[in-house]
C-alpha cells in the first residue's frame, strides 16, 4: 500500500500512520529500530530496497529524508506499508525550501518510541557525521566512503571526525576477506607474518581498510598498492602474507571467485563476490553498540599505514 501526502506536516503524517495501522492491521509493536536514510535531491530507491530486504531480519521503521533546499517551502510525504515495504514501514519525506532547513525536527516526531536510531547516508556524508543534526540523535551512523571522489581523502575525513558509533560500508564489505584470512592463520604452522601486501582498485577504500586491519592485527609492515590496469575496476584484488615457510596468497581472479595459495597445499577455489548493499546493511543493523574494532582500524591502523606504492595525487 502506498499513500501520498502533498503539502503536509509531520503531525499529519504521524496521524496517517496510526490510521494505517488501525485500518490495515500494520503492526508497529515488532519494530526494533528506526533507520533514517538521508539522501540529497532524489529518492534513493536502491537504498530503500536494501532496507526493505534487511527489514525481514530487523523489522524497523524506515524514514527517508530527501531535501531540496532551493525550492519553495513545502513538505511532501509518501507512506509505504505491506508488500511495498517488506517487513518495515517506509516514510519518504521530501522537504523543500525552508522546510528542509531542520532535519532533526522533521524526523523526531516520527521516531519509534524507546527504539534505537540508526542514520545512513548512502550518498554523500556530512563533514562530521556524529556532529550533524541527524547524527546527534543516532546510536549508529553509517557512511559509505566508496562514494567519495578520492578514497584516501575520504578515509582521512572518517579518521579525523570518528566518534564511537560511526561505521562505514567500505569496512563492512571486508567481512568475507577477513573471515578467509583469519581461518588460514588459525591453521598450522603458527608462524608470525613478516610482511603484508594488499592490492586493489584505485577507487576502493576497502583496500586501505583491509591493509590497516592486517597491519594492526598482525603487527607487520604493510604495503598497499592501487591497481591501475583497465581490467580491474573495483574492490580488492589480492592479499599476500609472507611467513618463513612461504607466502599465503588470496587472489580474486574474477568478480566472484578467488584462489587461495599456500605452501605445500593444493590451490583452493573460493567464492568471494562483492557483497550486496542488502548484506552490508543487514550486518550493520545486527549490532547497535559501538564497533570498537572499526574504531581502531580507522584511527590507529589507518594512521600507521605507509604511503601506497605507486599512488601519487591521482583520484582514488
Structural account:
It is a single chain. This protein has 316 residues and is of the alpha/beta class. 29% of the residues lie in helices and 27% in strands. It has 9 helices and 14 strands. Helix 4 links the parallel strand 7 and strand 8. Helix 2 (45-54) packs across helix 8 (277-285). The longest helix has 15 residues, at 10-24. The chain is elongated, with a radius of gyration of 22 Å.
Structure characteristics:
316 residues, alpha/beta, eight-stranded mixed sheet, six-stranded mixed sheet, 9 helices, elongated, disordered C terminus
Draw up the topology in text.
Elements: E1 2-5, H1 10-24, E2 33-40, H2 45-54, E3 60-68, E4 74-80, E5 89-96, H3 103-108, E6 117-120, E7 140-143, H4 151-161, E8 166-168, H5 169-172, H6 175-185, E9 195-201, H7 205-218, E10 222-227, E11 236-243, E12 246-252, E13 257-261, E14 268-271, H8 277-285, H9 292-304
Parallel strand pairs: 2-3, 2-6, 3-5, 6-7, 7-8, 9-10
Antiparallel strand pairs: 1-4, 4-5, 9-11, 11-12, 12-13, 13-14
Summarize the structure.
With 316 residues, this protein is of the alpha/beta class. The protein is built from nine helices and 14 strands.
Strand content: 25-35%
Q: Secondary-structure element sequence?
A: EHEHEEEHEEHEHHEHEEEEEHH
Shape: elongated
Strand tally is 14
What is the CA-atom radius of gyration, in angstroms?
22 Å
Distance between the termini: 42 Å
Largest sheet: 8 strands, mixed
Major β-sheet strand ordering: 1-4-5-3-2-6-7-8
Give start-end ranges of low-pLDDT stretches.
308-316
Structural class: alpha/beta
The number of distinct helices, counting runs of at least 4 residues, comes to: 9
Mean pLDDT over all positions: 89
What percent of the residues sit in helical stretches (DSSP H or I)? 25-40%
Amino acid at each position: 500500500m502506498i499513500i501520498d501526502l502533498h503539502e503536509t506536516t509531520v503531525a499529519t503524517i504521524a496521524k496517517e500512520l496510526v490510521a494505517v495501522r488501525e485500518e490495515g492491521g500494520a503492526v508497529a509493536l515488532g519494530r526494533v529500530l528506526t533507520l533514517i536514510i538521508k539522501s540529497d535531491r532524489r529518492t534513493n530507491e536502491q537504498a530503500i530496497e536494501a532496507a526493505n530486504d534487511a527489514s525481514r531480519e530487523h523489522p524497523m521503521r524506515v524514514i527517508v529524508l530527501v531535501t531540496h533546499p532551493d525550492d519553495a517551502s513545502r513538505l511532501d510525504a509518501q507512506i509505504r506499508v505491506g508488500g511495498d515495504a517488506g517487513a518495515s514501514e517506509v516514510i519518504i519525506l521530501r522537504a523543500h525550501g525552508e522546510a528542509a532547513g531542520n532535519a532533526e525536527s522533521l524526523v523526531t516526531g516520527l521516531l519509534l518510541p524507546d527504539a534505537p536510531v540508526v542514520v545512513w547516508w548512502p550518498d554523500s556524508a556530512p563533514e562530521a557525521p556524529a556532529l550533524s543534526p541527524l547524527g546527534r540523535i543516532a546510536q549508529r551512523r553509517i557512511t559509505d566512503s566508496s562514494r567519495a571522489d578520492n578514497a584516501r581523502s575520504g578515509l582521512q575525513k572518517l579518521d579525523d571526525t570518528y566518534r564511537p558509533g560511526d561505521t562505514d560500508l567500505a569496512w563492512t564489505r571486508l567481512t568475507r576477506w577477513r573471515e578467509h584470512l583469519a581461518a588460514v592463520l588459525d591453521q598450522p604452522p603458527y608462524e608470525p607474518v613478516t610482511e603484508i601486501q594488499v592490492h586493489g582498485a584505485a577507487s576502493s577504500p576497502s583496500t586501505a581498510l583491509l591493509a590497516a586491519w592486517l597491519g594492526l592485527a598482525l603487527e607487520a609492515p604493510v604495503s598497499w598498492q592501487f591497481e591501475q590496469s583497465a581490467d580491474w575496476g573495483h574492490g580488492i584484488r589480492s592479499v599476500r602474507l609472507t611467513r618463513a615457510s612461504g607466502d599465503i596468497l588470496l587472489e580474486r581472479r574474477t568478480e566472484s571467485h578467488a584462489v587461495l595459495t599456500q605452501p605445500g597445499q593444493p590451490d583452493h577455489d573460493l567464492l568471494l563476490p562483492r557483497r550486496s548493499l542488502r548484506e552490508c546493511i543487514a550486518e550493520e543493523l545486527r549490532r547497535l553498540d559501538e564497533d570498537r574494532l572499526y574504531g581502531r582500524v580507522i584511527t590507529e591502523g589507518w594512521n600507521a599505514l605507509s604511503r601506497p606504492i605507486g599512488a601519487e595525487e591521482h583520484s582514488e
